């Protein structure tokens, strides 16, 4: 028996329960992990509330990220030993696996032996944020030194990861946030510029920052009517990545900007990277190297205990955090 986070109906954070569950032995291609810490993601909130790309089957397990020690290996799994310190790259749809619990099974191809310089909390906070940002900015957009990148919802864990990656490249990260309350913290976290989109003219500010050229890339988990302004702020041949759907209303796209500047508007999920073995290998290598050098470092907003999983989800939904929410066992 192991304590596992599950829910039996769609709803608010209170539907989450920590229940005693029999965890099966790992199957072929699986690693069983004794969990030390778990990363919380917006996707899990959307899954719990029925707004995600997959729907839960009850009783539903939940959780994309965890760190811990290898407890057991499924048949034919190589490259790990019992007792290894590992963490998990999100590489499956929620419901297929659930990593929020004391003892869990995970697909072996997503399991990573992480640098020993990371704490359990940092290891659990790493893979969703850095892989998501890496995939769009490095693998696909191939951002170059000196280019400007607009990062919306910049105080989120993925937003902060994007700031770090853009800085590591030598490009210019511009943090987009609704109000100015998080400006100082975003500058402290490495943003070259911060634009409070409800208080400032986004297009004018980007033109000022870029000497009229516009930003080459925009990285956005929100969507909604603000996208039109972001597209107007892009440069010729600029690329807009929509990697989340916090606002599910249809996008407003300025056609003259789209045509006049030959823009690319692109949907993106990290599974584009994590389900491709070669691209996943490159992502792991890039992130592990960045962690080892100190260029990349997870930012943890707040830590909760496993019995506080409801409070952790509430905090996620408050949007008050700067960085990653982590739950420890």
Describe this structure in words.
With 329 residues, the protein is of the alpha/beta class. It folds into 2 domains: 2-118 and 298-328, Medium-chain alcohol dehydrogenases, catalytic domain (Quinone Oxidoreductase, Chain A, domain 1), CATH 3.90.180; 129-268, NAD(P)-binding Rossmann-like Domain (Rossmann fold, 3-Layer(aba) Sandwich), CATH 3.40.50. The chain is 30% helix and 27% strand. The protein is built from 10 helices and 16 strands. The strands form 3 sheets. Strands 3, 5, 6, 7, 8, 15 and 16 form a 7-stranded mixed β-sheet that branches. Strands 11-10-9-12-13-14 form a 6-stranded parallel β-sheet, sandwiched between helices. A 3-stranded antiparallel β-sheet has the order 2-1-4, with no helix packed on it. Strand 13, helix 7 and strand 14 (264-267) form a beta-alpha-beta unit. The model has no long low-confidence stretch (mean pLDDT 94).
List the helices and strands and how they pair.
Layout: E1 2-7, E2 16-21, E3 30-40, H1 42-48, E4 60-61, E5 65-73, E6 85-88, E7 103-107, E8 111-112, H2 120-140, E9 148-152, H3 157-169, E10 172-177, H4 183-188, E11 193-196, H5 202-209, E12 215-220, H6 227-232, E13 234-242, H7 255-260, E14 264-267, H8 271-274, H9 277-293, E15 300-305, H10 309-318, E16 324-328
Parallel strand pairs: 9-10, 9-12, 10-11, 12-13, 13-14, 15-16
Antiparallel strand pairs: 1-2, 1-4, 3-5, 3-7, 3-16, 5-6, 6-8
Helix pairs in contact: 2-3, 2-9
